[in-house]
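Fold in C-alpha cells:
===
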Amino acid sequence: MRREVRGSRTINCISILHPFLRSARPVGERPTKGEFMYGRERHHEILSKQMAAESVWKSFVEQDEDVRILKGKKRTIHRWDTNHFRIVEEDDEMEAAIKWLPDPIAKPSNAKACSDTTKLVGRKFKPIDRQNENIVLPLENGYIRVIVEGSRTAGVRGGRTCRFEWVKPDREAEKTHAIPIEIDQEHGTEYHPRQTVAGSRFHEDYLATSLSEEEARYIQTFFGYSLLDHNNEQIGLFQYGNGGEGKSTIVNLCSCIHRKTVPVSMKKLGDFGLATASQASLIFVDDAPATWDNADVMKSVLSAGLMAIDVKHSDAIEGRVYGKMVVCGNEVPYVNDASNGWQRRWMLAKWTNQVTKDPSLEPHIVSHELRHVMDWMLLGLKRYFEHGLPTIEEGPVSTQELFAELVSANNTAAAWAIHAGAEVDDGVRTEKKAIYEAYRLWGEEMEKSPKSMKDMPRFFIALKQHLKHFDESKLGTRGERKPCVGIRIPDIPNVAARPF
C-alpha cells in the first residue's frame, strides 16, 4: 500500500490488491466441458477477488485518518477536507468505491458493501467533552483556540480570563464545519479580537442604532457564553420588542459562527422539535406566542436535563439538549408556571429602538463583516469568564422593567407585592385576611382575569415564592387568634403592637 498525493488532497490507493485482481477476463463462446470446468474455477476466482477487495477496503478504512463516522439513528460518513470533516453522501461514497473496485466486481452491490464497511469500521467521532471550555472555532484557513486561565470556584461567578491562539487546522479537533472567515496572520500566534472597527456597518449601522451600549454588552455576554459546549449556567435569552427593532438579526448573525443553529416552533418544542434541537449548538424560537404552555419542557432544555425525545417513525429516545436557547417575541408571555424561578432562568433583553429597514444590511455583514461578529462574540466570552452572566439586578434598566412586566403577567401575587411595596420584616405582623383583601381589590381595579387571580392559600404560596421567606404566627386572645405574617405593607396596619 502506498500514498499518492493529488492536488491538495491525500488519497490512499492500492498498488496491488491481490493476485486474483490482476487476472484477465476470459472471452469466448459457449463453453465446452473443459471450458465449463474453467468457468467454475472462474466463478470461485471472482468470489475470491470480491473477498480480497472487501478485505483490502476494510483494512484501508480502518487506518485512514481522514475518515470519521458519526453514530446515530443513521450512521454518516465524514471525510477530511482541508479544514474540517465534511459529510459524504452515500451515493458519493459508492461512486468512489465502484471506481476503485476492479473488473469484474465493479458492481453497485459491491460498492454498497464497501460503503457499509466504511460506516462499520471507520473511526468514530469522539464524544464532545462538554466541560472542556478550551473550545476551538474552525475558520477557512486556521483555527482560533480558546485558552482558559484560572479554575472554576463553586458559588463564584467569573474570576477567570481567557486568551485566543491562531493555529493550523487539526484533525484531532474533529470539527464538522468551517466558519467562512479568513485571517491574514501567521499560525502559532496570539489572536486579539477587535473591539470596534471604524466604518463597520455591524457596529455603527446596527448595534449602535438598536441598543444602548449597556444593553449591547448585556446580550454580548450571553452570545459569547453560547459558544461553549456546556450548559452550566442553565440560562436562555428572551428578546422582547414590538417588531422592527432588529432582535432577530443578531441571532441570524451569531448563528453564522455556531456549529449548527436550529429554528424551532414553540408549539413543536414539546413534540418532534426536540429531535432536531438535540443536535444544535444554538436553538432559535422566533415569533413566540403570547402563551407558553410548555414551561416544563423549556426548563429541561435550559438545564440540559435528561428527557424523552420523540423521533418520527421511531421509538422515543432518552437524551439531553445542550444548545443555548434564544426566544424572540412581540408580546410579554403568559407562562403556565407561577414561580419566579421561571423568569430567572432567562436573561431578558428589551428592544425598543425602531431601526430603518435596510434589506442589504444583514447580507452585507454576513458577506463582508462576519469577522466583526465573531470578535464581538469572543469579547463577550472573555467577559463571561471574567464576570459571569449578569443577573437581572445587574442588567440594564430595560431588563429590570421587562422582568417586572413578566412578573406582573405571570404571578399576580408577586405583581401585587411590587405594587404595594411589600417587604419582609420580622418585627412586623400583618393580618393575612387584610393582605388578601387588598390583593383582591387590586385585582378588580386592574381588571385581572379570574384565571390569573389566586385563592387565599395559593396566594400566600406564590407570595412566599416571590419574597423567599417570611415568618407566620397567630396573634390575639384564645378563640380570637388571627393568622399574621411578618410582612410590612405601607397601606395595611401593623398589628404587632396592637392590644387584642
User: Anything to note?
Assistant: Residues 1-40 have pLDDT under 50 and may be disordered. The radius of gyration is 32 Å.
